[in-house]
Amino acid sequence: MKKLLLLAVVALSCMQSSFAQYFRNGVGAGIAVEDADYMDTKVNFTFTYSPALFFAEQENSSFSVGIPISFGINEGYSSDYNDGYYYDGSSIGFTLDVPVILNFNYGAGAVKRGRKKWGFFAGAGYGYHLSTDEFSYYYDADGNYRTSDYSTLGVTGNAGFRIGMGQRRRHNLEIKFTYMKGLTSYRPNVYGVNCIFNF
Fold first, then answer.
1. How far is it, in rounded angstroms, from Cα 100 to Cα 88?
2. What is the CATH number of the domain that holds 67?
3. For a Cys-Cys bond, which of 72, 85, 181, 193 suits 44, CB 3.0-4.6 Å?
4. CB within 8 A of 139, min separation 6: which ones?
């Protein structure tokens, strides 16, 4: 995981120094739904920081490489029956998504000095997903109670639209739909929708 992130940061730095046109940040929030064969479906409330490098600009279009990092929180529920007693309760779980995405952008937000009111984007990439769940547990060799962490690498894609904001349309509001298919470990499907302000 650390090697993947380091490689992505180095690649972005090289692109910025060689042919990137401009760098943009975004912050936002959304909802992500995680589904897998061996766990209950989780609905996460997510917070996103979305840096991206835009390059290969044309009149109204460009390409970009971004690392939209999302942190999510969910409430889990579990019940169990043991030694004649019934247990149930809720707990907080967490998720982390770190994808590297190549996007094609058109219209609003695609070029640095663009004046378009509307725009769209679509792209694909590869990412890392981590999910923690206090109700997925095991006992180690010493008999200690341990919670389980699930992590996976997989392919990911996104698409959405942008609305130019401000008199000169220098900022934009982005509505993004995402999907990730985990290819390792527990192979989850992760669906998401985000609202991000790019500045």
1. 39
2. 2.40.160.20
3. 72
4. 145, 146
133: domain range?
A: 2-6+26-198
CB 134 within 8 A of CB 151: no
Tell the residue number behind the tokens 């990412």, with chain if given: 127
Q: Is residue 135 part of a domain?
A: yes
Residue 189 in any domain: the answer is: yes
* Digit-coded pLDDT (tens) for 126-135: 999 999 875 5
Residue from 20, 60, 28 nearest 45 by CA: 28
pTM of the model: 0.82
Task: Give, rounded to a whole angstrom, the gap between the first and last alpha carbons of the chain.
Answer: 28
- Measured CA to CA, the distance from residue 129 to residue 180 in angstroms comes to 9
Tell me the pLDDT tens digit for each residue of 77-88: 555 555 555 555
- Whether the CB-CB separation of 101 and 63 falls below 8 Å is answered with no
- Number of structural domains found in the chain: 1
Position 16 in a domain: no
